[in-house]
Amino acid sequence: MAKPLALAISLCLVLLNVLFQRGCLAARPQFESSQQNACQICELQAREPDIRIDCEAGRIESWDHYRNDFQCAGIAAQRVTIEPNGLHLPSYTHSPQLMYIVKGWGVMMTALPGCPETFELSQGSQQGQEGQSYEELERRQKVRFIGEGDIVVIPSGIVHWVHNNGDTSLVAVILLDTSNHLNQLDRNPRRFYLAGNPEDEFNQQQGEGISEQRRHSGQGSNNNNIFAGFNTSLLADALNVDIETARKIQGQNVETRSQIVRVEGKLVFLHPPIRSHAQETQQGQQEQQGQQGYENGLEETLCNIALKEYLGDPRRADIYTPQAGRINVLNSNDMPILRHLSLSAETGFLYNNAIYSPHWNLFAHEVFYVIRGSARVQVVNDKGEAVLDDEVREGQLFIVPQNHGVLQKAVDNQGFEYIAFKTQDNAVINTMAGRTSVLRALPEDVLANAYQISREEARLLKYNRQETVVLSSSSSS
Ligand SMILES: *[C@@H]1O[C@H](CO)[C@@H](O)[C@H](O)[C@H]1NC(C)=O
């Protein structure tokens, strides 16, 4: 009796599997996320974040990393908004991060292990911005200014915090490369906090229509900082502080203190006075020159490594077409640490009607976040199906899997401005239109025969575009 039943059930399961994993006609199952088939993508979406945590002085929004496209690309993404005077508490992640500042200004620190505290405030000799003098000696590592257009690289396990000392919201978009070779845990994003009682950033609370997969992962919503798990008296002993202080470090003195807190009074750091964007860039160039003049092997150490670049600078454009727009690329040539992390990024600004040449990424997935404006975007898979065909808007994120073809056209008076993160340090693209396109590389005869067109048409196809990547639309010119 039992045997035929079991057989029937297993047959059903096999059938279901076949239905769900092959072909784009089958409905996409909500919880299909076995990494094996994650790239069998039938549908991509440009989306706003799915999960939101409201904090005392800001919010943290995350995109649902269980979705197929995220599982396929092996990434997670967040948008962090810090209100003026807010502090995103010190934390680290097990996957490398790229953080792009979309709006606002602030300061941050990446605390590098074993590096000297190069900033020193000695007794009586320093005056803070508000005029108060420091009573005691404080040593700490360098605090960095960050502002709109900056990209910051945060390696795995490196503690960092961000403080908004400006008067507008600071908004950052963060890529967590969970499938990076430096991550030896699984692909679930995790953030380890050093303070507070952080809420779960990456998983929706119980009951909010959570998926099967999420229930299995057993993630609760009540988290603690990493000190909380240690025995208080052992911790007090290790830190050489009293029990009461150890309790506070563990976050035992507060019910909930979520991850972005309001700072009492003002945080004052010893640093050069606040500068304008232009000054900031100048300073950046000087820093770089300084580093270049110091090439004796020391620049390779973690302590001196460049972790920040002003990627929004129009003057540093790598690709520029006056009628159509520009692209700024950040790769391991600009920032050597990216070679270790196998990541890169680009920002782009297409004027209205301009087209980003249809192309594919040879070795990388590409994660787009729309900073301003909007674009018509199409992404095509190996079956020649448009798995994404949509108008993407400010605040949305979409993923272009490796080798999938993508075409973008700006369709907004503001144009289309984006930041794209790539999962490879020297991501190369193959364009399908323009002076450097693959069609130019193919012989006329091959084109003529492949498309059944005349030699004349083949020649036109090859040579009628002089631009390379950022193309002006014939309908606009
Ligand atoms: C913490 O460790 C101390 C010393 O080993 C021990 O006496 C105490 O019971 C422990 N506390 C807890 C909550 O386990």
What would you note in describing this structure?
19% of the residues lie in helices and 30% in strands. It is of the alpha+beta class and 477 residues long. The protein folds into two domains: 51-111 and 140-262, Jelly Rolls (Sandwich); 312-471, Jelly Rolls (Sandwich). The strands form four sheets. Strands 16, 17, 18, 19, 20, 21, 22, 23, 24, 25 and 26 form an eleven-stranded antiparallel beta sheet that branches. The protein has a seven-stranded antiparallel beta sheet with strand order 1-2-3-12-5-10-15, with no helix packed on it. Strands 4, 6, 9, 11, 13 and 14 form a six-stranded antiparallel beta sheet that branches. β1 (51-55) and β2 form a beta hairpin. The radius of gyration is 25 Å and the shape is elongated. The structure holds 2-acetamido-2-deoxy-beta-D-glucopyranose. 2-acetamido-2-deoxy-beta-D-glucopyranose (NAG) binds at residues 231, 233-234. 2-acetamido-2-deoxy-beta-D-glucopyranose binds at residues 231, 233-234.
